[in-house]
Amino acid sequence: MEPQLGLHALLHVFSFLEARDLLCAAQVDKVWNEVSRTKELWRQLCLRRWSSCKASQMTLGTQTWKQYYLCRSELEFRMESGRPEKDFICKAIAGHKGGIDELAYISTNECRFDGQEKSVVCTVSSDSTVRAWDVQEGTEIWSSPLQPAALVNLVTYPRLQLVVTVDKLGLIKVWKAENGREWASFSLPTYSSALQACDHPEGPFLLVASVEGILYALSMPQLQLLSRTSVFPSSPTSLLCSPDCQWVFASTQDSDLGPKVFHTRSLLCLVEDEPPVSTTLPIWLISRACWAPDETARLMVMHRNNDSRQLAISTYELGAKQSQEGVDVMVQQIASFLLPDTMTPPHLMKAHGSQLILLVSGSELVLFTIQGLQLAAFQDHQKPVTSLWVDQSRVLTASFDLSLRVYVWNKENKFPVLKSCYHLLGGSHRWASGFTHVESDSMSIVGVEARSIGTSILRSYCFNMQHGSDDCVN
Q: Which of 98-102, 198-202, 465-469 is least confident?
C-alpha cells in the first residue's frame, strides 16, 4: 500500500495548483475533495488574479471564495467572448425627450454574485431632467421634476448614493440616488466648465470650475462653500482629481498659461489671506491629461513641445513635503516623448496601470508606454471614436459608426497586451447617428445612442451568469 500525504502536506502541495487543477483534484476522492475546497486556497487564487480583491470594501456576500472565483471567471469569460444572447442580453432603454449629455453609474463597481448585484446608471439631458435606470431590467427607476434649464453634466458618489448635476445656467443640485429627492443646491455666477467628485479621506467634496476660471470646493452633501480660487482668469478650466484625491490638476486648453497642480488639503482648509498650496508645471499649450490609476500621484500630460511645437506627452511624479512655511509641492519629470508627426492630434487620452497610455486619434486607438514605445494600434471602427473607457480588465470604445468595441487585457507579458475582441452593435442607421458615450461596471456595459431627431436612448448589454461554470475557468 502506497503511503498517503497528510492533510497539512496535501494542503501545501495544493497551494501551488491553479484553479482548474484544484477542480480536477477534487474528483480524486473524499479527502482530496475536502482539502481542495479550503477557503485559504481559493482566497489566494483570487488575490493573485484580481488585485481589487485586496480592497477592504470588497463584499463576498453569501459567496465562498471558491464560488466567487468561479463566478468572476465565468463573467470575464463571457465578457471576452461576447456571443449575443448566449453571453449577454441587449436592451434599448428610452425615456428622455432630449439628447443625453452625460451618464454615470451610481451602483458600486464591486463584483458580487449573491443575488444582490444590481447595475444602476444616472443620466442628464437637454430635456431638463435627471433620471436613474435599472440596467438589467431596462426600466426607469425615477425621474426628477422638470428643471429650470437643460442639465449638462453630472457626477456620482456610489458610496454615498448621491448624484450631483449642473445645468447650463450654473445651478448645482444634489439628489438622493434611491428616490431622486433633491438634497441641496448651489448657484454659480456663471455656468460650469467641469465637475469632479472627490471621495477624500477627510470627507467627500465636490470640485467645480467655472468658465471664468474660478475653482470652487464645496462640501458634500450640503454644498457649503469651502474655498474659491482664481486659477485661469476668464478661461474655461478643466479638472482632474488624482486616484487618492490628494491632488487636483487644473488646466486650460491651448493656452500659454502653464497647468497647475493643487494640494487638495489646502483647498479644503484654506487659510485666510493665503492662497492654496499649488505649483505650475513648466509646459504650455495643454490639450489632454490623465492620472495613472495604479499610482497615487503620477500624472501624464499632452502638450506642445517648447522647441518644435510638436505634440509631446510628459509624465510627472508629485509629492508634498512639510516645511516651516507650510507644505512644499515637489515635482519630478520621469518620462517624456514626442508623438509621431504622422499622427492626427489625439482627442481622447486615458492611462492603464502605471506605465501605459491609451490615445484615440480619429477612429484609431493607440497604446504607448510612458517612454514612447508604441505597443499596439487598432483601427476597428469605420468612423471617429467618441468615447473611451478603461479599467483593469477591459477597454471600451464608442463610435459614430453605431458600435461599441470591446478589448481585454492580457497581463502575462512585461507590458499588458490589449486584445481586440468584438463589436457590440447599436440600432438602425436609419434612426441613429452613432454612440456618443460608453460606461461599464463589473456586470454590464451601457452606451448612449444618439438619434437623428435630436434625442438619445441608452443601450445596455448585461452579461449572463450561471453562477460558476467550471468550463469558464482558465
A: 465-469
C-alpha–C-alpha distance, residues 217 and 262, integer Å:
12
C-alpha cell at 16: 501551488
Among 304, 191, 172, which Cα is nearest to 251's?
A: 304
**CA 262 – CA 267 distance, rounded (Å):** 8
Residue 40 inside a domain? The answer is: yes
Q: What is the pTM of this model?
A: 0.90
Residue 19 maps to which CATH number? 1.20.1280.50
Torsion angle of C-alpha atoms 126, 131, 135, 139, degrees rounded to 10: -100
**Cα–Cα distance, 374 to 207 (Å, whole number):** 34
CA distance 444 to 103: 14
> What are the cell numbers at 168?
447650463
Position with higher pLDDT, 401 vs 18 = 401
Residue 121 lies in a domain: no
Quick one: the chain helix, strand, coil %, rounded to 5?
Answer: 15, 45, 40
Among residues 153, 365, 320, the alpha carbon closest in space to that of 239 is found at 153
Alpha-helical runs (H) found in 97-188: none
- Candidate from 270-279, 296-305, 398-407, 452-461 with smallest mean pLDDT: 270-279
| Residue 427: burial class (beta carbons within 10 Å; 0-12, 13-18, 19+) | middle
Identify whether 135 is part of a domain.
no
